[in-house]
Design goal:
- With 218 residues, the chain is an all-alpha fold.
- Helices cover 65% and strands 2% of the residues.
- It is built from eight helices and two strands.
- The chain is globular and about 60 Å long.
């Protein structure tokens, strides 16, 4: 339900929200368990990102379609049941497509059920928003989460194994940074990306201030 005087986001705004302004990894810092655990390679990161996006889009769409039917008293339990259904589907899909990826992701596929990004979108957005805007918002959030995972997974695989998507990038003399494929490496890379992302966000307003001053002076 729209609040009087409140601007309703456009479809483009809904899609782009999760890519930059509310990026799940670099802004809201949500879903850190899979981000740190499965991002040892770009393939694992991409697989987890796509799986989460599939569950996010499917579950929020269904919540949006049923938003006027689900009783408020049992809405959270209903959301979890819907999310668990889509997680089961994606679990079997990954298992059928690639056993190697399924084994690498391990229990983190099932843990998508309790991913706060998905439950938060269902409660805060899908339960109050029409289906089209819900799907666009979910796609943006899923893409933002996938980009965050890929950003970590690519750096960790390149530095930790000298490869990207399994393709060797350097010669035989390259010495891998073993720490990058260990848990501390995930924290180091995440901290570096958060630092860069926050610097880019603060740099934009600072660049706008001189321009505004020039206009007022003129």
């Amino acid at each position: 339900m729209a609040i009087p005087g409140q601007k309703i986001p456009s479809n483009i705004d809904e899609l782009l929200e999760g890519l930059w302004k509310q990026n799940p990894v670099f802004v809201m810092v949500l879903g850190m368990c899979p981000v740190l655990a499965v991002s040892v390679s770009a393939v694992n990161a991409l697989s987890m990102g796509l799986a989460t996006t599939f569950v996010l889009v499917g579950s929020t769409l269904l919540v949006s379609l049923l938003r006027n039917v689900i009783p408020r008293e049992v809405r959270i339990a209903t959301y979890i049941l819907i999310i668990a259904t889509f997680v089961t589907v994606v679990d079997y899909l990954i298992q059928a497509i690639s056993l190697a990826v399924y084994d690498a992701l391990g229990a983190f596929i099932q843990l998508i059920v309790v991913n706060c990004i998905i439950l938060g979108r269902a409660e805060a957005h899908a339960s109050k928003t029409p289906p089209l805007r819900t799907v666009l918002n979910a796609l943006g959030m899923g893409a933002g989460f996938t980009i965050g995972l890929l950003a970590l997974g690519s750096v960790r695989e390149i530095l930790g194994a000298g490869k990207l998507f399994g393709v060797t990038l350097f010669g035989p003399d390259f010495q891998p940074w073993v720490v990058m494929v260990l848990p501390p490496g995930g924290f180091f890379v995440l901290g570096a990306w958060l630092l860069l992302f926050n610097w880019l966000k603060t740099r934009k307003p600072q660049a706008a201030q001189p321009a505004e001053g020039h206009v007022h002076g003129a």
